[in-house]
Amino acid sequence: MRIVVVGYGPTAHRLVESLTGRGFTGTITVLGEEPRHAYDRVALTSYLTGATLEDLTYPAPEGPATVRLAERVTEIDRDRRVVVTAGGHEEPYDVLVLATGSAPFVPPVPGAEHAFVYRTIDDLNAIRDAASGASAGVVVGGGLLGLEAADALRGLGLATHVVEMAPWLMPRQVDEGGGAVLRGHVERLGLSVHTGTGLNRIEPDKVVLADGTEIDAGVVVFSAGIRPRDELAFQAGLELGERGGIVVDDAMRTSDPAIYAIGECALVGGMVYGLVAPCFSMAEVAADRILGGEAVFTGGDLSAKLKLLGVDVASFGQLSGALDVTYMDPVAGVYKKLFISDDARTLLGGICVGDAGPYSLLRPMVGRELSASPSDLLFAGAGGAGLSGADFPDDAQVCSCNNVTKGQICTAIHELGLTDVAGVKKCTRAGTSCGSCVPALASILAAEGVALSKALCEHFEYSRPELFDIVRVRGITTFSQLITEHGRGRGCDICKPAVASILASLNGGHVLEGEQAALQDTNDHFLANLQKNGTYSVVPRIPGGEITPEKLIVIGEVARDFGLYTKITGGQRIDLLGARVEQLPKIWKRLVDAGFESGHAYGKALRTVKSCVGSTWCRYGVQDSVGMAIALELRYRGLRSPHKLKSAVSGCARECAEARSKDFGIIATENGWNLYVGGNGGFKPRHADLLASDLSDDELVRTIDRFLMFYIRTADRLQRTSAWVQAIGLDYLRDVIVGDSLGICADLDAAMERHVGGYFDEWRATLDDPDKLRRFVSFVNAPDTPDPSIVFETERDQIKPVLLEVTRA
Amino acid sequence: MTIIQNHPETRTGTATAWTPICAHADLLPERGAAALVAGRQIAVFRTFDGRLFAVGNRDPFSGAYVISRGIVGTRGEEPVVSAPMHKQSFSLVTGMCLDDPATAIPTYPVRVHNGTVEVSVA
Ligand SMILES: Cc1cc2nc3c(=O)[nH]c(=O)nc-3n(C[C@H](O)[C@H](O)[C@H](O)COP(=O)(O)OP(=O)(O)OC[C@H]3O[C@@H](n4cnc5c(N)ncnc54)[C@H](O)[C@@H]3O)c2cc1C
Ligand code: SF4
Fold it and tell me: Rounded to two decimals, what is the model's pTM?
């Protein structure tokens, strides 16, 4: 079979790639009018800001394709099944594909011949040449492309004007309010905006607007819309749309079944698509059909998120609806709008200007039932599932531990001139207990216009990831060395545990070894969790939640003998509470002798890997979730990280282990495992995102290895994976740990191997070391006297701490 | 070796009664230890530069006797311990809570005498 493709733009390139990739064996001849190989038109503007032609050019097609450049097709002879080029060359076809794209619309005004358009490399070369002798430029058209062109002119050093016929910029994407916000951004960059007026005429070096305004300008660029290039199809008598475009069915076939049309020249389902993603889908459909497949084009996603002139602009879904919710902050230059069905339940689409934060969260939800109130969703910042400081009303309780409202925090920020989270904590007590509201504090500070310093605390100017790199690259092994060489003072409760965690991640070893002991928070220092009355809780590891009756009995006996309160935790293990410091080693001894080890419930480390019973017992299970959970828990036990890590494995899609609420959750499929990352229960619940599907056991483990190590390297102090994944982006994460885009995977793998190889049980190592054991006394001068302040009463047949008297001023 | 910590609240004139607590070597740098002296719980600290401090072990914010288990560091020039419960910082020199100046914990004279750490609660 002989396939001939007319036009060699992104869509044609994708078609050829798809055909050869599927093993097409006939001949393909591509005729392109431009004198160069197909290039990425979406990135066209980067050609003016440093990218080379090679950077933009797609790789040359492999296989049976012949490309004829600088050949414009002028005629299709459907009877003879040949196309004829301007140079008189004839190319016979069995199947013809038109991928002729579109051309900029040039309004018929006097002097239009002096103007440029903005579509090809040649156009940009011409604009660049003209700009070198000019000082000002005018872009006609204030839409997406017009603003992109305006930015390019500005970049070429021209005083730039934008003329838009509609009353505001980007009239197709945003309404009047959004246009006003956008205009603010554009004008702040020094561009002049003229809306509500068209062009009267162009004279050499001068543009005259319909309202009489005259602008001296050496360069004029038209960006007033595009028209499908359907002239060939018209000549050949193919059916066209009323307003242009080659009519095709959902198989991309024109009115002549031997001729397909794809990309921006095609009119499918009554629409011409001006974005590259739907064009690519059309190419895939046509390739499939040509090879005998059944693919259909079901419509394209017109969502777009881009940075125009440094401003985030995003729109998705349908841009109208029965109801809409708008958020606008002209000062910050933010405009967001959501369109919702008339029953206020279904998200239809939305627009964001100045903050595309909600875009990634909301775009996948178009057509679905809303998970939160529209205003909550709108206010979701880059990091949030509907929670942002700006969103909270003044009387909202931000810190529930210490009952601090947003109003109190804002008052403190303004009256005391606070500039950082530490200051807010100090002055309001918010965030000083469980700490889960700290991100909200940061977001409130940001909303109040305070720029956050990345410094960890007063002792280090660096963020946690920066400190991690310093320690790693310089091979630093002690806190003293680090603070002497890269900090000041002697540290505090913020930087010491953070550095302790970095040292533990990089160097392994016992967390109570040498100087490290002094860095640990009390939980890590006593390898147990401090409770409100000064006692500790003990949680032995029960991997995957699987436990023998014998071991259950041991736990019961230990609890009974030491008078501890017992409770089943959410992580499928058993918490023993009420232990005094001097009891800890005795309790561990009993547990360790019975085959238990530390569960690291006290550490910023892997906690548990929950599991359901899985395919071994469950009628629905498709994989052994318990076996996998145990393997993972044993692999990652003891791994110190910026924050705690939780995991779960479910044996089938019914998800009984609630894996998607975990930092890394695994759900069995018929073919292997799906890996989800960045989930969270707690203060700010979030479902984990699918990172990879149908992984084998080995692939699963390797991907989790890299995910965890990359998180440990780059996350901020106390940043859970949910916030981290949202901050770096799921696609970027996948590029790094699956595609190895940074070339660090071997390094990450080696780091995890070191961790796995270096693991030992901290409880047992402590029991074996008399030096470390000496710390576990109630009083240095009366080791046998229990702390007299610790008193219990009984409730439901177990102990309960007697309330302590609090005496602060 | 005898090191005497000069202490603002040490009353001059009265003979100070010193109670031995532990060997100086038993105190880890930048870590505290709890001691029971005449029915009172004392938290004794040794800072990085070798100085000794003794303060009350009771955390006024939680009521629990846990100050000795806090992280030792500095705030500006001031040596501090942060309460392990809710992380308020207390000056080891004056006992004042730097996050809430109206709250303070008691401080006690402390010294090393013949290699033994001694405090006075009189
Ligand atoms: C500056 C700019 C920025 C853009 N930014 C984005 C963006 O951010 N996101 C997005 O999704 N889309 C963007 N687009 C749109 C995107 O580039 C197009 O959707 C895409 O290029 C369409 O590809 P196509 O192959 O269908 O058409 P084209 O890219 O137009 O390619 C058609 C090719 O066919 C050739 N041709 C036409 N007629 C003939 C003939 N008779 N004989 C031989 N050859 C012929 C043309 O010369 C051209 O090379 C942008 C476009 C521009 C110009
Ligand atoms: S997730 Fe599936 S396999 Fe596991 S218990 Fe539930 S139904 Fe059974």
Answer: 0.54
